[in-house]
Amino acid sequence: MFYIIYNLYFSSKNKLYFLKKFYYKFLRNKMRTSQYLLSTLKNHPKNAEIISHQLMLRAGLIRQLSSGIYIWLPTGVKVLNKLKNIINQEMQKIGGMEINLPNIHPIKIWNTSNRINNYGNELFTIIDRKKNNWILGPTHEEVATELAKLEIQSYKQLPIIMYQMKTKFRDEIRPQFGIVRTKEFLMKDAYSFHVTTTCLSKTYELIKYAYNNIFSKIQLKFNIVAADSGAIGGNISHEFKACKNIQNNKNSKNKSIQTCSNIFKIYFLKYYSINDSTKTIYFAYMIKINKNIDLIKIQNDININTKINLASKEEIQQFFKKKKEINLEIIRKNIPVIIHKNIIIQENFSIELSQLTICLINNYWFQYLPNPIKYSDNLLIEINDFFKKKNKQKNYYQTELEIAHIFQIGIKYSKYFNLKVKNNKGKNTFLKMGCYGIGVTRTIAAVIEQNYDEKGIIWPLKIAPFEVTIIPINLHKCVLVKKYTQLLYSELLKNNIDVLLNDLEENPGVIFSNMDLIGIPYQIIVSPKNIQKNKIEIKYRYDNKKIILNISECIKFIKNEMNKNI
After folding, report:
1. CDD domains under this entry (predicted)?
2. Parallel, antiparallel, or unpaired for β 452-453 and 456-457?
3. I need a labelling partner for 94 at 20 to 30 A (CA). Which of 295, 448, 484, 546 fits?
4. SS3 367
5. In angstroms, what CA-CA distances link 388 with 370, 378, 383, 384, 393?
6. Residues 443-477: tens digit of each pLDDT
7. Is 32 within 8 Å of 505 (Cβ atoms)?
8. In this structure, are residues 433 and 413 in contact, taking their beta carbons and an 8 Å threshold?
9. Residue 270: per-residue pLDDT
10. What is the domain partition of the chain in residue ranges?
11. 246 pLDDT exceeds 50?
């Protein structure tokens, strides 16, 4: 077959025409369900605790090979590749250069940085046939510093930003939540090198800007919060955290709640002074993340003869308007903080400011809350009971999922590896280093946590596995349906629109269910009834709205929809 195509190509007078014809004749068939691995599941998988894990399995994005190890199927790979393309574009806009560092590291460089001891049991180590010890890289600061030492000879080469998208390895003691916590995962990690701290700070802000663009393009809601640098090192770091909804399964052991023992939530409450009804008194009420409050019980507990209400976001912002930021120390100094007696004192803990959707991490109890006003005896409503009484909705609580972490490391690794260059004054200077990571695979989980309904995933257009799907009714029985389906399919391909054609002989209900589950943004429905009227139907996945158009308007309409999202 290869030699036939080879001879036809070189004997063709118009080679470009031949390539186009060959593409539309053969390669486009890969976007038909009859020749595509569409692996959907009807029922909820067992042991899938959070919605992203459930839907990624059901929609055929992933399959579990072992605990914490997943196979990515074609639909999942398409989503991954689209996200990687967005990351590549934004990193290259700020001057990032792509590199490829090895996964296997000599243990010597981890001994040099002393991280072999403080990284912990999550470090994967392997021994080769010659009894040499190696590390499976969970991160690449040591390797990047070695590369910089080899290649950077002058301050004139700086600043420099190098990045890669690489599989990382971590010996998780308890992999869970699907691709959120696994033994291997895809990460974008970047490393920058600078002569001065000022230059490092500028690049740090540039990376923040790039990350904002990346997450905004995929319509992800996120917060940027100051963070602890941990085993990576440095004095300044920030986390990008996406909000997620974790749903509780009655049959599960609520592992997701157990992992949040050091995450609390603060509600800002208010009441009117008994002596002066125009005066509003505010206080903060701190509880576990998986609990909700009963205002009447709080009122009874602290013996106030006036109604307690939740303060609005606007009221809180007005109250703290003179403060540059809101943190736990500022809250404690300005209003009383009441802490529930069931809270176990934690050395380090995180707090969600409920009405403000802000998360404060790395709080130290005796530094920020040395003398809470009192411990409340209020009996809290369990979250399951709370939602049984409220519209019978599914049970959930909100927390945040870390999707990226950036660091101003400084000279930590430069000192270990003696990475110096002469500055513009001829003085030997340790290079300042920045490190910037994005959890690529877990970002996909975060997107799903924010974009789904009872039917399945609702993908943002930029990373949807397909932009459009064509659903013909009675394709193999109705000549008109077949004709116009093929016409639409060919035109969409010519316009570089990522389309999936459902050409299998299946029940229409099954096809609709699968397409909703996978979450393709636009569905073009070609039915005998509409075709006779020269019409087709288009369905929006994000709100399930349907519109009827003339066939001649279809391609123009889809192109306009694509252009809105450029």
Report:
1. ProRS_anticodon_short, ProRS_core_prok
2. antiparallel
3. 448
4. helix
5. 37, 20, 9, 6, 7
6. 999 999 999 999 999 999 999 999 999 999 999 99
7. no
8. yes
9. 85
10. 67-103+138-247+400-453, 256-394, 466-564
11. no
- 466-564: CATH topology is Rossmann fold (3.40.50)
Contacts 24+ apart (CB under 8 A), 542-545: 542/458, 544/455
pTM for this entry: 0.72
Mean pLDDT in residue range 69-86 = 98
What's the CATH number of domain 67-103+138-247+400-453, 3.30.930.10, 3.40.50.720, 3.40.50.300, 3.90.1300.10? 3.30.930.10
Beta strand 535-540 with 546-550: parallel, antiparallel or unpaired? antiparallel
pLDDT over 70, % of the chain: 79
Residue-wise pLDDT tens digits, 265-320: 788 888 877 677 778 888 888 877 666 677 777 777 666 677 888 888 888 888 77
Tokens describing residue 100: 């490829």
Contact 235, 244 (CB under 8 A): no
CA–CA separation, 469 and 32 (whole Å): 10
Torsion angle defined by CA atoms of residues 73, 79, 80 and 86, in that order, rounded to the nearest 10 degrees: 170
Residue 423 is encoded by which pair of tokens?
Answer: 């500055």
15-25 vs 479-494: helix axis angle to the nearest 10? 130
**How far apart are the C-alpha atoms of 527 and 535, rounded to whole Å?**
9
Is residue 564 helix, strand or coil? helix
Strands 499-501 and 468-472: parallel
Homologous superfamily in CATH for domain 256-394 = YbaK/aminoacyl-tRNA synthetase-associated domain (3.90.960.10)
Q: What are phi and psi of 145, to 5 degrees?
A: -70, -40
The widest CA-to-CA distance across the chain, in whole angstroms, is 97
DSSP state, 532? Answer: T
Packing angle between helix 15-25 and helix 2-11, nearest 10 degrees?
Answer: 150
More confident residue, 134 or 259: 134
CA gap 250, 261 in Å, rounded: 19
Collapsed DSSP state (helix, strand, coil) of residue 30 = helix
d(CA 368, CA 346): 12
- Do 67-103+138-247+400-453 and 256-394 agree at the fold level? no
- The alpha helices in 59-196, defined as continuous H runs, are 74-93, 107-112, 115-118, 141-151
